[in-house]
Amino acid sequence: MSLRDFIEKYPERRYLMFGGKGGLGKTTFSATTAYWLAKQGFKVLVFSVDPQASLSDIFKCDIFGKGAVEIMPNLFAQEIDADQRIKAYQEEIRQKIRTMYGLEEVPEEIENYIQAAAAEPAMEESAIFDAVVDIVISGEYDYYIYDLVPLGHALYYLSMASVYDEWIDKITALRAEMAEYDKVAAVMQRSKETEEDQILQELMYIKNRINTSSGILTDKQKTAFFFVLVPEEMIILDTQKAAGMFAKYNVPLSGYVVNRVIPPELGKQNIPDYLRNRLEMQKGYLEKIDTLFGEQVLARVPEFERDITGLPMIEKVANAIFR
Amino acid sequence: MSEEEKKRKWLDGFKSVLYGMAGHDMARYALKTRGSMEHLFILITMGDLLGIPILPPYYSLRLLPYVVPQISTWKRRMLREKDLTDALA
Fold this sequence. Notes:
The complex is a heterodimer of chains A (323) and B (89). By secondary structure, chain A is α/β, with parallel strands linked by helices. Chain A is built from eleven helices and eight strands. An eight-stranded mixed beta sheet of chain A has the order 3-4-2-5-1-6-7-8, with helices on both faces. The two termini of chain A are 13 Å apart. Chain B has one domain (3-88). Chains A and B meet through helix 4, helix 5, helix 6, helix 7 and helix 8 of A and helix 1 and helix 2 of B.
């Protein structure tokens, strides 16, 4: 099966993701797949959740923090600016405190906490995670293509979601118990109905957000996750390890794309030993990849004569993958 | 005042006495427990305020506005040293 066959065979898989180690071509394939789908007439959004996103570079167009930008008809790209989002979010919290208690300024102690919270390392991941929910919930596009962060981060997202989920369950239970005590006291004092617990409502909202975002990553009906790798020993080993971990988090692994394959036809030409050795090395590892992943290898993408930036180069790659 | 009203008034009074004898303490106890739980809740959502790193802060910030009034009493309680008289309270 090829990548094209896969996409055509499973049209309901509308969330496509490319993951893998850094620098192997995740952004290239995200952009290329988006380009091809857009050419087929689908409305596509390719977006990056990487703080060091490179969609701007590949499309040669500064889109950082500008929302969904139309690159060509049907093709939209977006890079989430986590910092900006966190700042807006902090301000939203401050505003809420000011209006709730009719304050001019947020008390110093509280303000310090708000600022300290933003410096936490998990803050950025969570903010991006949350932004993704907004993007996907709108449902404006036929396809959503995630240009994922390198492996470690992606796993961190997923583990964080499950920890979050349990945490929420615990505090929701505590909150519900508190409401019980409220009710008991109210009954005994024969006072009117207790006021509804707003915190409980917030908790429900948070739980919903977390479940939506991690749900997309693990939805077997709607999501396809592709690993990008290159024919080199270390990469193969790491990919295998990562695939195991992803499987544990129920990510629907759908296939592997092998990048940077030196065209074997070159071997027939008079080429320097340097290149011939690399060609030999790749041949060995390509066989290894085939025995390890077999049918799941969906594409072998050649090494191109130059780096992939700009639509003409993206088209070239698309032609190579989606022949 | 009709017989009916007199009766109701007397009943209300009787209920209040009953409440004072039995219910009040229970209600107080329920509210006290609830107060303790409120503090526990703040601890597990806003522990960072005391320098105890708790969980990812992104969503706990959403809860912050609701606990603003309780925070100073909570901090006092968390940081207070315990002594014998606490047992009597």
